[in-house]
Amino acid sequence: MATLNKKQETRKRIINAASRGFRSNGYAGIGVDGIAKEAGVTSGAFYAHLGSKGGAFEAALSMGLDEVITAIPEFQRQHGKQWIVAFSEYYLGQVHRDNLACGCAMTTLSPEVVRTKPELHVIYEAKMLNIVELMARGIDGSSDEECLSRAWAVLGILIGGLTMARAVASVNTADNIASAITNAAINAAGQTKALAALEIKVS
In terms of pTM, does the model score above 0.70? Predict the structure, then answer.
């Protein structure tokens, strides 16, 4: 693995801070000064690396969705045919539900993308298409179109379910939502399959 130089390390630290801030507080809930402070840099350094708050959001969005792109093949590698069960249980599990700052960007940042410039919609769509294609590889269906359709359904169920589970007041209700949504996602996926090592590699 290549070693990052000081400039690269600083940029990465700023993007990580922006990612945590946007996931926890939403785009409007944190400003440049807050991100810079969290990253341990000056506001001037922030602007030098990312140019604007919008630039920070774009970088944070790309990084967050890339985390999912990396995670899906890892679940498929580790859990074989049971990968969708493991992924769904993790996604709706209490640890993930409670961790807004480091939780999945699909749930926390998708609503923010709706309000952003068209260029970000293009980036978001490309990343989500990559994610759904990776998921579809691990679904057993009669056609590629069927597998992709099931993968989209699973994503929609998980993202919506996690949002609801995070929004309710009681842990008991959140647990009930999580259990129902986990089962719904598994059912939506249908038959899944174990992949060969070559198939698991990220495109």
Answer: yes
